[in-house]
Amino acid sequence: MPISLDPLPLSPVVTASRPLAGMTVLVVEDSRFASEAVRLLCLKSGARIRRADSLRAASRHLAGYAPTVIIVDLGLPDGSGLDLIRDLAAAHNRIPVILATSGDDCGFVEAVEAGADGTLLKPLDSLLDFQNAVLDALPEEIRPEGLRLVSSETIEPDRIALQDDFAHIADILTEADDDETVDYVAQFLQGLARTAQDPDLERAARSLAAHSSDGGSIRSDLARVAGLLQQRIEGRKVI
After folding, report:
1. Judgement on whether residues 122 and 187 belong to the same structural domain of the protein
2. Could you tell me if 172 and 224 lie in one domain?
3. 145 pLDDT band (50/70/90 cuts)?
4. Which positions fall inside the Response regulatory domain (predicted)?
5. Which of 108, 162, 217, 237 is geometrically suited to a Cys-Cys bond with 119, CB 3.0 to 4.6 A?
6. Confidence bin at 237 (pLDDT 50/70/90)
7. How far is residue 112's CA from residue 118's CA, in Å, rounded to a whole number?
8. What's the Rg (C-alpha) of the chain?
9. Which CATH number fits the domain that encloses residue 120?
């Protein structure tokens, strides 16, 4: 009696519209909203995605598998993304593409010096910019050949993820009684506000960061940020 074998799974086909087919992307990002943006960009590009929301979580992922691409946010809850980039760039079995991302490009020079192959400025909404950043950074021997799709398509992440981020950072803000936590809140909100295209919140976060760094009073900044967050959580601000 003949044995019936299931067909082997087909290898992902790289096309102009799905140039990242077969690749795995690990995004190290504490914002659910920004992570959702990367998920949509990967989905439309043909890539698989995994997410780590901290340096510790990234280490667990990397202990088990090696992605083709890693996208590292520079500000994370348990440390700087620069440290992870530096370690990855020096590794013996180096990940092919290391990209840094942030809502502020002031840390990008340091990221490249640490070993990043490229940078992605938030908001991450342009499909063309995302694909080009990955493809341009790929080593030539594994870079897909052929024409690239010229697309002006943008993506829009689920706003439920944005509300989750607002609620998360509002909880942290209630216990922000040390400089390190305040700096993290300011950094997180700058990136989130830029991704959500929320200029009022971005200005408030920048003011908080500036006054915190120069040792000035931050009481009014904290109150302003807390009030803006509460408006957005309660839905009184339409973004």
Report:
1. no
2. yes
3. confident
4. 24-137
5. 108
6. low
7. 7
8. 20
9. 3.40.50.2300
Long-range CB contact pairs, 83-87, < 8 A, 24+: 83/55, 84/28, 84/55, 84/58, 85/111, 85/114, 85/115, 85/116, 86/114, 86/115
Q: Are residues 165 and 115 in the same domain?
A: no
Domain that holds residue 52: 24-142
Domain count, the chain: 2
Claim to verify: residue 86 and residue 170 sit in the same structural domain: no
Assess if residue 13 is contained within a domain: no
> For 35-44, what is each residue's pLDDT tens digit?
999 999 999 9
Q: pTM for this one?
A: 0.89
- Asked if residue 199 belongs to a domain, the reply is yes
Strand pairing report for 75-76 and 79-80: antiparallel
Query: What does the block give as tokens for 185?
Result: 């809140």
What secondary structure does DSSP assign to 29-41, as a single string? Answer: -S-HHHHHHHHHH
For residue 139, report the phi and psi dihedrals to the nearest 5 degrees.
-55, 145
